[in-house]
Amino acid sequence: MENWNISRRVLGSSLVAAGVAGAAWRASAAAPKPAAPPPTPPAEPLPAGALPKTTPEAAAAQSSGERVLCYVGGYTKHGPPEANAKGVTLFEMNPDNGVLTHLSVFEDTDNPSFLALSHDRRFLYACNELEDYGANKDSGAATAFSIDPRTGVLTKLNTVTSAGANPAHLSVHPSGRFLLVANYSSGSVAVIRIKDDGSLGERTALVKNSGPRMPERAKDNPPGNYAVSDHSGAHAHMVQADVAGRFVLVADAGLDRIYVFTLDPDHGTLTPAKIPFHAMEPGSAPRHFCFSPDGKTIYILGEQNSRVVVADYDTDTGAISPRQSISTVTSHFRGSTIAAGIMLHPNGKFLYVTNRLGNSIAVFGVKPDRSLALLDEVWARADYGRSLSFDPAAKFLFVANQRSDSITSFKVDPTTGALDFTWTFTPVGTPTAFAFTTTKA
């Protein structure tokens, strides 16, 4: 069979039903299943700012002065042929059962494939995953929105170039003064100043990664994995500061490196750290990462080899010292899979990863020494699970299933990490990213 060389822009359309599920799913499929509840018709969209009907529990939560809102981004054009998103969709979450009720859609924005909130939750930022923004060829964009404190409705403040093609990730620096943007196709990272009113100002830095050509496949691939990630050049896939905000880290999935920079707090410039990068397994395509609550352990997800690397992180120097590599699929798995999202539970005891082609969620337990143990591999109940997110109380885990045009949700057991499917499917076009927040009722 011909191998697939997969770039980010065509990943969703190039991968056919390979590795339909992980081994844990196959095992559970043979076991008796609980009866599904009767299907519930999808809720009709409400007028912008209107409050949905709620259960008594949700009404009590609202009367206490708080509502849980969820913004969902996705592909609206270009990219995968199944780009069905309309823009940034706003839902309200029922805190009792996790059900998402559609409120409104902000449509005047293209391919808002990743979202980030300001630290005060007054503003939302989206990367516009484009390569033809405005008159700038080979460039995408970033958009700033203000959030209505009562309704959650978005108002666009402005859009600026990301100075690189197909931005795949963005984050707000802990200082709140800068937006960090990873341009996937250009292999570059931009720093954009955030103004006092939340809008985006001038670009203060642009750094392009470079390095030798890496192999298409990692030696520690899952057995039978035909899917390969794009190693044709630099591909910055994620950029985020460490917990203290002292260093900015970049996962480059094309060069198989984690770059480390210091950020000038006044001028917004990036300078390579004393150890400028950490080399990952060749061909592994490091995609995303997350930190332990104290910032001293980093968990790095390899897209192509579907493994999590556990590493000690030196908060004084930014040095990364790996000590474990563990698969996101069970030892029984055979076939193609590509990992996508990674998230640590706020209690620091459990870690979750989406396997896109396996259509599964890996559930890891975090040991006292911060190493991982694979506890379960759960069927996501949909196709091509990409991003995942907890609600603010971490009671539910949500998965954006890009090719199924749906969000699935699971109730999280905070003592065991187990996921219990809620039997709730939320329809939304090609979802790729979440941003949860709370607002006054």
Automatic annotation (TrEMBL):
<keyword id="KW-0313">Glucose metabolism</keyword>
<dbReference type="InterPro" id="IPR015943">
    <property type="entry name" value="WD40/YVTN_repeat-like_dom_sf"/>
</dbReference>
<feature type="region of interest" description="Disordered">
    <location>
        <begin position="31"/>
        <end position="59"/>
    </location>
</feature>
<feature type="compositionally biased region" description="Pro residues">
    <location>
        <begin position="34"/>
        <end position="45"/>
    </location>
</feature>
<protein>
    <submittedName>
        <fullName>Lactonase family protein</fullName>
    </submittedName>
</protein>
<comment type="similarity">
    <text>Belongs to the cycloisomerase 2 family.</text>
</comment>
<dbReference type="InterPro" id="IPR050282">
    <property type="entry name" value="Cycloisomerase_2"/>
</dbReference>
<dbReference type="Pfam" id="PF10282">
    <property type="entry name" value="Lactonase"/>
</dbReference>
<dbReference type="InterPro" id="IPR019405">
    <property type="entry name" value="Lactonase_7-beta_prop"/>
</dbReference>
<dbReference type="InterPro" id="IPR011048">
    <property type="entry name" value="Haem_d1_sf"/>
</dbReference>
<keyword id="KW-0732">Signal</keyword>
<feature type="signal peptide">
    <location>
        <begin position="1"/>
        <end position="29"/>
    </location>
</feature>
<keyword id="KW-0119">Carbohydrate metabolism</keyword>
